[in-house]
Design goal:
5-stranded parallel sheet, Rossmann fold, binds cytidine-5'-monophosphate, globular, 213 residues, alpha/beta
Length: 213
């Protein structure tokens, strides 16, 4: 059983994916952490995230045990992650880990930007989670404030818009809603309501897949 959840930055997909995985007893992988970890390691080695060679070296040497690092959530690493994610060689290197994770029993919920399109095109259920940029900026700003990170809501919105543009316009694996995905707009939904909506969409999609098979 594979559930693919895609969507833009701060759409709520990460929190939803975690709760959906717990609900169905599945593994969970937040693939943004892979790109953030590559960005962290590139910078730690004195490299430039825009430089394909430096980012590729970090991707090849990535230690999966370092993905739990709480410092991966900073705005700087979000920005640097979207730069390393631009390089096709980096994406290719991270693909094997993601596909191997998807094969874990009894199944996995994987969230990111290209899960339903590239990583797991045969996923049992695909969800595309979105919200307006303003609402996403409000949420991310609150999270940063709670974590003691010093940014303004305006800066967070500018960062989100810049990342959306970069993620949607890159040549390889751009962010887009897979044709066979179900859309969940969380703009006017608090997290509990979004979770209930996700479960009912997933149950309905599984019911349809079950009948078809
Ligand atoms: O989701 P998160 O904000 O942690 O992702 C950080 C960046 O990593 C994104 O802006 C995107 O550029 C990149 N990413 C990606 N493909 C994924 C997951 C994340 O390109 N599957």
């Amino acid at each position: 059983m594979i559930i693919a959840i895609d969507g833009p930055a701060a759409s709520g997909k990460g929190t939803l994916a975690k709760r959906v995985a717990a609900h169905y007893g599945l593994h969970h992988l937040d693939t943004g952490r892979l790109y953030r970890a590559v960005a962290r390691d590139t910078l730690a080695a004195g490299g430039d995230p825009s430089d394909a060679g430096a980012a590729l070296a970090a991707a090849r040497a990535l230690d999966a045990k370092s993905l739990d690092d709480p410092d991966l959530r900073t705005p700087e690493l979000g920005e640097a992650a979207s730069l390393v994610a631009w390089h096709p060689e980096v994406r290719k290197t991270l693909l094997a880990y993601q596909r191997a994770f998807a094969r874990r029993k009894p199944g996995a919920v994987i969230d990111g930007r290209d899960i339903g399109t590239i990583v797991c095109p045969d996923a049992d259920v695909k969800l595309f989670v979105t919200a307006t940029p303003e609402e996403r900026a409000r949420r991310r700003y609150r999270e940063f404030k709670d974590d003691g990170i010093d940014v303004t809501e305006k800066e967070v919105l500018a960062d989100i818009l810049a990342r959306d543009t970069r993620d949607e316009n890159r040549a390889v694996a751009p962010l887009r809603q897979p044709e066979d995905a179900v859309l969940l707009d969380t703009t006017n939904l608090a997290i509990d309501a979004a979770f209930r909506a996700a479960i009912s969409l997933i149950d309905a999609a599984m019911g349809r897949a079950g009948r078809a098979g």
